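Work Package 4 report. The design task specified in the project plan requires that, given a folded chain encoded as structure tokens, an amino acid be chosen for each position. We show below one input record used in the internal validation round.
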């Protein structure tokens, strides 16, 4: 959001006053710079593959110049903390040279954000009996935004189902099909839970439903649950077997 520039501005006028920053997400990152030359199909953000042609060349030049300036102003901050190792790595790359040059005594550190889990711990017991209630559900909890890359998740799940059907239909497994159905209460199911902020998000969910139809994912295979209440989310956390996240450059508190 440009706060590094505000801190550098303050440092310029008040050089004796220490400054500190807790960085949640860098204004620009080395991954963003690299995404300009990446194929759009790789899911590397909205600007993937936009570094081609004259416009792309100018965009790359601007981004690289901005990254250098961002590194210089970030180097003026006395104490720097980040919310994750991902953010710390990019900040060290971008701000590190300027901080070394200015002989900043404190290294960039990671301070994971606090997460309120008391209600989750109380609501979801972890014992042998509760584990028996879990189903072959793959759970994704994420806002329906482009960077969450739900498209990759749907395509991967469809490919997984196809591989499962190919395996179970092979000659050596035909005789075991009845036993397999007895052992498995339901087939694998993908559950997508997320908030819808506006009409753009609603359109995105609609497009995902169309993609699911194209991939032959029926309601037996996939469920879209929008704007679910917290108790509903807890109930699905208690019964799902797998949690998945397909966001490119996930940065919130990861180790």
């Amino acid at each position: 959001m440009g706060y590094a520039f505000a801190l550098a501005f303050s440092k310029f006028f008040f050089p004796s006053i220490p400054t500190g920053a807790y960085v949640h997400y860098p204004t620009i990152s080395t991954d963003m710079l690299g995404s300009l030359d990446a194929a759009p199909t790789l899911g590397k953000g909205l600007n993937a593959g936009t570094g081609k042609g004259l416009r792309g060349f100018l965009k790359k030049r601007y981004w690289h110049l901005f990254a250098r300036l961002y590194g210089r102003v970030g180097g003026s901050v006395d104490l720097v903390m980040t919310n994750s190792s991902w953010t710390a790595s990019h900040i060290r790359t971008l701000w590190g040279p300027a901080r070394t040059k200015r002989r900043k005594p404190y290294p960039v550190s990671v301070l994971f954000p606090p997460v309120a889990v008391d209600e989750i711990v109380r609501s979801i017991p972890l014992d042998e009996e509760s584990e028996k209630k879990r189903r072959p559900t793959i759970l994704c909890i994420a806002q329906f935004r482009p960077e969450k890359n739900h498209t990759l998740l749907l395509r991967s799940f469809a490919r997984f189902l196809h591989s499962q059907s190919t395996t179970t239909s092979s000659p050596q497994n035909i005789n075991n099909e009845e036993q397999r159905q007895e052992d498995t209460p339901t087939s694998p199911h993908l559950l997508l839970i997320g908030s819808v902020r506006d009409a753009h998000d609603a359109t995105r969910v609609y497009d995902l439903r169309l993609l699911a139809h194209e991939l032959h994912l029926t309601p037996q295979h996939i469920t879209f649950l929008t704007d679910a209440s917290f108790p509903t989310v807890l109930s699905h956390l208690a019964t799902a077997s797998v949690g998945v996240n397909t966001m490119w450059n996930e940065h919130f508190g990861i180790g």
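Confidence is low (pLDDT under 50) at residues 176-184. Validation will be extended to a larger panel in the next phase.
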